[in-house]
Amino acid sequence: MSRFLTICCLFFFLTQPALAQPSITQVRFGFPSEAGALIRNGTWIPVDIELDAKGSEIEPDKFIIEMESTDGEGASYLIKIPVIPKQTRMMGYLRPGSATSPLIVKLKEIKGTTIQVWPTPARSSATMIGARDFLIATAGFSPEALHLASANQSKLDSIKQVSAERLPRKFSVLNTIHDLPNQALGYSSLDTLIISTSSTLSSDLIKEENSEKRSALSAWLLSGGTLLVDSGAHYESTKSLLAALGVSGCNIEGLDSNPKGLRTLNGLNRWVTPLVSQLLPMRINEIAKLTPSPSAQTIIRESSEPSDPVVRPILVQIPFGRGRVF
């Protein structure tokens, strides 16, 4: 009998999954863009960390990620995050004070032994967000459309002097739900977030397993953030996202279709043209039926047409705490 128990115990031991020591495979400081990760000094930035467990499960309660930086006056920030089994992607936050502030990420054992140190990234003017720069993050948009929009904006910026009223713009591109911060302070560098509600990222944000990221976005908006969402053909997704964030103040009733042809968006053209220094061909077949509440403000209206004798709001500003949702 004792021999049988020994064999069973040995079999049980041999069938347990081998526990692994992870390694860091990628670190991104700041928000992703074509030029590289964008960093604004003096604010908290997200630090996206990818781990490799080498095909095995990470041993629990043994490893931590340690991050360190300094502010402009030399005060040190030291952040420690436990490495959780089965977790291969983590997000932390640092607050560099200047372009010379160190950005240090270490993988360590909880006992203190350093396993790996990630090299400090090189920083350039292309990836630094200046005090007058306006940082816009686009989430869930196609790379082709973003590349075209960015190229057109860069061309306009190069041929005209940027005034104090029209601040220099830099764009971050968020492709998946993993790119969104899971704490409100991770949005500190951003001025505006634009979400395509037709995207997988938008639908993922509503899911229960991403409630932490949703709460972080909502908290950032309440503290003064700005969010822009579309309400066109995917208006149902827009309604679901706003409801999940706790935003109310504008009812999206559906779409008004114009069977007699395309509708010219003259109101939107008058608003957008001075910003981009050119007249854009804005003609659509369908327009969302928006009904703002008394607390919301209509920014742009479209005049009535013979096929649709109603003056329709097309851009609505909804107050949300200290922030705004358009």
Would you kindly provide a written description of the structure presented here, covering whatever features stand out?
The chain is an alpha/beta fold and 326 residues long. It has two domains: 19-126, Immunoglobulins (Immunoglobulin-like); 132-325, Class I glutamine amidotransferase (GATase) domain (Rossmann fold, 3-Layer(aba) Sandwich), CATH 3.40.50. The protein is 22% helix and 33% strand. The strands form six sheets. A seven-stranded mixed sheet has the order 11-10-12-13-20-19-18. The protein has a four-stranded antiparallel sheet with strand order 6-5-8-9, with no helix packed on it. A hairpin with a 2-residue loop joins strand 19 (312-320) and strand 20. The longest helix is centred in the middle third of the chain and has 17 residues, at 143-159. The radius of gyration is 25 Å and the shape is elongated.
Keywords:
elongated, 22% helix, seven-stranded mixed sheet
Condensed summary:
By secondary structure, the protein is of the alpha/beta class. It folds into two domains: about 20-125, Immunoglobulin-like; about 130-325, Class I glutamine amidotransferase (GATase) domain (Rossmann fold, 3-Layer(aba) Sandwich), CATH 3.40.50.
Topology overview:
Layout: H1 2-14, E1 19-20, E2 23-29, E3 45-52, E4 57-58, E5 63-70, E6 76-82, E7 89-94, E8 104-109, E9 114-118, E10 134-139, H2 143-159, E11 169-174, E12 192-195, H3 200-206, H4 211-222, E13 226-229, H5 235-245, E14 250-257, E15 263-264, H6 266-276, E16 283-284, E17 286-292, E18 297-302, E19 312-320, E20 323-325
Parallel strand pairs: 1-4, 10-11, 10-12, 12-13, 13-20
Antiparallel strand pairs: 2-3, 3-7, 5-6, 5-8, 8-9, 14-17, 15-16, 18-19, 19-20
Helix pairs in contact: 3-5
